[in-house]
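Pipeline run #58 for the internal structure catalog. This entry was flagged by the ingest filter as a single-chain record with no existing model, so it goes straight to prediction. Upstream metadata was stripped on purpose; only the residue string is passed forward. Reviewer on rotation: M.T. Logging verbosity set to normal.
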Amino acid sequence: MKLKTQVLITLSFLAIPFLQAQNTAENILSGKEGFIIGGYGQIDGNFNLDNDNKMNSNGKLDVHRLVTFLGYKFNDKATFVSELEYEHVVELYVEQAFLDYKIKDNMSLQAGLMLIPMGIQNLYHEPPTFNGVERTNVDKYIVPTTWREIGVGINGRLDEQSINYQLMMVNGPLGYDNGSANFSGNKGLRGGRQKGAEATVSDFDFAGRLSYFGMLGWNFGASFYKGNSETSDFEADSTQVGITMMGVDARYNNGPFQARGQYILANLENTAEYNAKTGADVGSKLLGYYLEAGYNVLDGKSENELIVFGRYENYNTHEETDGFAANAAYDRTDKTVGLTYKLNQGAAFKADYQLKSTEASSEETKHLNLGVAVWF
């Protein structure tokens, strides 16, 4: 049985469960009236190693992300949520800025710049909430996190069924801008994120997610995205691609043991016409998945946590192509082992060791990552 099929079956068995994982936006929405502030940060050190595990090139030290959450709860029905992010010290972005209006208990209307509810880390990306110094590459190259768009949506909770739901209508990623392709074979849709900055709208797209939290310690999610990419040439159909993305994910956290997995599949239409028009090499199918398990070796011995974890991850932005041969270098595998030392649920030191390879070569590259993660 192929590994990809095994992963999908494993996730299906994990599909029962509950983990009341919250992000900062959810904390603001459930907070008290008035001004609310929060934030998170991620400071990384990345080093490439040779076969003897010695540095073989210059490393990189980076204040990767420094984020401030600002929210204001006007009353028990209306709340504004914003997320302002500095990346690499010099790049400033707005990652979220939306108004939440509670229509009734357990149901809200939201409008503004919102996170697309696809996969785990696009929604829950506060650094202490995941193992590994960097976010997973499935979420970077397939999803592509941090993916946010402007639109309107509803979300809510069905307590008796133990289900959370989200549905939104948003603008899509910009695939073509003034004669240039923003999508590519290497990075998929990542270059098309508009990040809410004077976003171009040719079509409105739809996204949604269901989460089931019916068993202690478990959470299961299913996400979808459907629509067309945006283009600066409104009359040219060859500058757009159709996007159908689906994902399933599962998380388990109970006592010292934790596990999570994710499977994302994106089918892109009209790529032959798009590639012919732009000269790009965008694949017609993108696929990525990972499985991760961890264990807190300090469980029962300390209030701190020392989580030992391992993760297997594969992501292929040329799973299928239309009219040309797939590039095997875009079929990539990362094997990661590491430690997360939590001083608190909001503060952690991280270290991991990665072996990266592609289907184009039998050689693996080695990498060491060290990091500081905070969330408050």
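catalog note: The first strand starts at residue 34 and ends at 49.
catalog note: The helical segments are 3-13, 24-29, 137-141, 271-278.
status: ready for reviewer M.T.
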